[in-house]
TrEMBL record:
DNA-binding region: 124-222
Stated name of the protein: Stage 0 sporulation protein A homolog
Keyword Glycosyltransferase carried by entry: no
Annotated OmpR/PhoB-type domain residues: 124-222
GO molecular function, one term: transcription cis-regulatory region binding
An annotated GO cellular component: protein-DNA complex
UniProt source species: Candidatus Lachnoclostridium stercoripullorum
Pfam families: Response_reg (PF00072), Trans_reg_C (PF00486)
Top-level taxon: Bacteria
Alphabetical list of SUPFAM superfamilies matching this protein: CheY-like (SSF52172)
Protein role: May play the central regulatory role in sporulation. It may be an element of the effector pathway responsible for the activation of sporulation genes in response to nutritional stress. Spo0A may act in concert with spo0H (a sigma factor) to control the expression of some genes that are critical to the sporulation process.
Species lineage: Bacteria, Bacillati, Bacillota, Clostridia, Lachnospirales
C-alpha cells in the first residue's frame, strides 16, 4: 500500500518514511501544503499522514480541499496541536483519525492500519486466481503446497493484477501506483518486476501467467492444460 506523508519537519518525515518502509508500506513525502495537496489529489495513495502546521497551506485546508474534490483517501492527522478545538476542526474537515505528537511508533502504525482497514473493509484476507492464492497480510503467494514470499513492490503489483483480472492494466498505471513520483523509474522498472513475478510463478509451477499486450498492458491469465480429444 502506498502512503503519502505531508510533514514539513524533514527529520520527522524521514523517520516516518523509514518506519513505513520497514513495515511493508511504500511511502512518499511532501514538505509543504501545496505539494501535499497536488500529490494527494493524484488518487494513487491508500492513506495519508497529514501534519497541520504546514507552509503553503495548512493541513485542515488541505484536507477540506481534498474532500471537496471528491477524494476520500483515509487521512491520519498528526499534530502537536492536541486541544479539543483543533481535534474537532480536524475531524470536521474530514480526518479519519487524529494523533497527537509525540506518539509511539506502534501507536501510529496501529492507527494507520485502522484507517486503512476501514477503507478497505471489502478487501478479503486473501485473493485467489486460478491455482494461486495471494495473501497480502503475510506477503506470500502460494500454489498448492508451494509458497514464495514477495517483496513490497511485487505484492503491490500482484494485488493490482489480482483485483483486476479480466482487464489489461496499462504499464503507466502500474508505474504511478507502485512507484508514485519517485525519480529514476520508468517503464523498464515495471518490466523488471513483471519478470521477477513470472520467475516466481514458474517456481510455483502455477498454470497462471502474466500476459502482456503490447501497448495495452498486463493481466493474469490461466493456461489450461491441453486435453486430448
Ligand atoms: Ca509542521
Amino acid at each position: 500500500m502506498r502512503i503519502l506523508i505531508v510533514e514539513d519537519e524533514k527529520r520527522l518525515a524521514m523517520t516516518l518514511k523509514d518506519l513505513l518502509d520497514q513495515s511493508g508500506y511504500l511511502a512518499d513525502m511532501a514538505f509543504d501544503g501545496n505539494d501535499g495537496l497536488e500529490l494527494a489529489k493524484s488518487g494513487i495513495y491508500d492513506g495519508i499522514i497529514l501534519d497541520v502546521m504546514l507552509p503553503g497551506m495548512d493541513g485542515f485546508h488541505l484536507l477540506k480541499r481534498l474532500r471537496a474534490a471528491g477524494n476520500g483517501t483515509p487521512v491520519l492527522v498528526l499534530t502537536a496541536k492536541g486541544d479539543l478545538k483543533d481535534r474537532v476542526t480536524g475531524l470536521d474537515a474530514g480526518a479519519d483519525y487524529y494523533l497527537t505528537k509525540p506518539f509511539e511508533n506502534q501507536e501510529l502504525l496501529a492507527c494507520l492500519r485502522s484507517i486503512l482497514r476501514r477503507q478497505a473493509a471489502f478487501v478479503p484476507e486473501c485473493l485467489a486466481f486460478g491455482d494461486l492464492i495471494l495473501s497480502p497480510a503475510v506477503t506470500s503467494l502460494s500454489c498448492g503446497e508451494r509458497e514464495v514470499t514477495l517483496s513490497a513492490r511485487e505484492l503491490e503489483l500482484l494485488t493490482i493484477l489480482f483485483k483486476n483480472t479480466g482487464q489489461f492494466i496499462p504499464k503507466e498505471t502500474l508505474l504511478l501506483k507502485i512507484w508514485g513520483y519517485e525519480a529514476n523509474v520508468n517503464a523498464n522498472s515495471v518490466e523488471a518486476y513483471i519478470s521477477f513475478i513470472r520467475k516466481k510463478l514458474a517456481l510455483l509451477g502455477s498454470s497462471v501467467t502474466v500476459k502482456a499486450a503490447r501497448g495495452i498492458g498486463y493481466r493474469l491469465e490461466e493456461t489450461r492444460p491441453e486435453v486430448a480429444p
